[in-house]
Design brief:
Layout lengths: L1 E4 L7 H12 L6 E4 L32 H12 L9 H7 L3 H13 L12 H12 L5 H11 L5 H8 L3 H13 L3 E2 L2 E2 L2 H8 L4 H17 L4 H10 L13 H14 L3 H13 L4 H15 L4 H6 L2 H9 L4 H13 L3 H15 L5 H7 L16 H10 L7 H12 L7 H14 L3 H18 L2 H14 L7 H16 L3 H10 L11 H14 L3 H17 L10 H11 L3 H13 L6 H9 L7 H4 L1
Parallel strand pairs: 1-2
Antiparallel strand pairs: 3-4
Helix pairs in contact: 2-4, 3-4, 4-5, 6-8, 6-9, 7-8, 10-11, 11-12, 12-13, 13-14, 14-17, 17-18, 18-19, 20-21, 21-23, 22-23, 23-24, 23-25, 24-25, 25-26, 25-27, 27-28, 28-29, 29-30
Length: 611
Amino acid sequence: MVFCVDDVHHADETSLQYLGTLAHGTREQVLLIVTRSPYFDRPYPASLDGASSSGRVERIVLQRMDTDEVDDLLRKELGLSGLDTTPQELRDAAGGNPFLVKTLLDELHDRDPGAGTDPVAGTRFAGAVLTCLRRSGHAAKDVACAYAVLQGGPPPEDIAHLLVLPVTMVTQSLAALRAAGIFADRRYRDQRLARLVLEGVDPVDQARLHRRYAARLQRTGAPIAEIVRHLEAGHTADGTWTDLPWAADLLREYAERLIAEEQHRQAARYLELARTACTDPNLRATIDLRLAAITWRFAPDVAERHLAAPLRMVQEGTLSTGRMDVLDRLLRAQGRIAEAREVSGRLAARLGDVDDAYGVAARHGGAVLWDMPEQIGVDPAAHEHFLEASALSEGTVLSIVRALRALTLSDRLDQVPLWCQRLSDTARERDAAGWASLFTTLHGEALLRLGDLPGAEQCGLQAQQALPDGCRSVLAGAAHTLLIRSRTAMSKHGDVAQMLDTLAPELVCDTVFRPGYLYAHGQHLMALGQAAAALHEFLDAGRLLTAWVMDRPLALPWRTEAAEALLQLGETQQAERLIEQQLALPDGRHPRLRGRLCACARPWPPPRSRR
């Protein structure tokens, strides 16, 4: 008689007593085959151990197959020759476990010929892995799941703390998992096995485990990168962080480290996470402002959106004075002059300053970012020296822009394209698409002044292409405006009309690029013979420049264009008044403007006779 009992460690004592009676109480020859796992907290049944003293019991410990045995079996079953190499992924996945090796072979035999499906991904193999986990002890499955979630091979003490288990039980489970060929030390032998196990863990439970482990790591002083990894993995859709009140500060600290290492995209990701972990509105505003500062270099439209919440807080009167100052600077850096002026005005009112709001902003350093230098005749060598000495960075980019604009208005205009090309190349190398687009636009504006219309058009296209797909930022509007101006000058009126139909007004509305857009639109209308409509655009551009204290004829000679429109409309006296106003401005008589002045129909008296 043959009795076979599998997994005897699960049997109850009464059943074992009956089995012992059958095995020892019959006159027939009996072969009793019993299998048990050493990883369950039950000893070998005493009722079946009676024959051990007489030598009638033989204990066999099943071992894993070694590499040669696995290779021989796989070659035989797969029909490979001795010279063929056994697929490494099959050997790694099975880990020498005969049960897993057989299951892999069954998966391979059942596949269609030539199918490329990974047998490890099969449902049969997944079931076999789970069977191994169940047979590896009471806690083995939970331990295996925890290691699949956390990765990195945490010490048994940490897993025991998270699962509320004795350390000895975790250690025993690890030994069982290694014996089953699933683990090597404290890690999965094959990450495909980890993924199979992970599929059975609810995402909410995964997140909870990551968060609890992050808290333990934080208490024990683990490296910040390791803590942050689990904070990120533990982020849930509901965004609840009440159990980790320190998370926001730690994520911000890590983001600043990444910024110092020039890893701005990763830093932005962790700042976004810090924002979700933060419950203090003012701290959230601080994070928004920091995000706007670092994302402007590679995602300018995202940077603009990050200022929406701080702007709402300004309207509500809840943003602190220091944060209002930073917001003002960032708005001006993005060219959003109208919004910046509103913020600076509220800041002035809060400080009790009776001066003009723009003056307050100037003292805070925000007003000059897009303005022109006061004296056009300043030695351009000083600006070139600054460009040579300055490395492109978040702290220098706007000063570099200002130096380039100053050079554009000097007798060294021909050097501006060289500088812009160099800077845009550097920006691309450093994953700063926003900066690259900005410098390419400035490059095109310089070429436009030099008369290189095809080059200016090409720069406009390149400035658009530098930005991320679908980017709808102020910089996209600037590139669009450059294209309108260059194509109008090239008489590509059909292309310009199509561009005007597709340009979203909000891209340049109330920004530093709005006057340039109005000026370009006016030039297009003049080319079509619509002087009245063109005049309206030129005058609107002038009103904005005057209000923003940025009215410089050499930068944008809107009065000359408006005067020409007035002359076509027969308004000679109004045209004369505009030209008189231009000549009274610091750079109104600059040689570069002389040609446009002479293009007006009426010959103006020489400067001395005007006095």
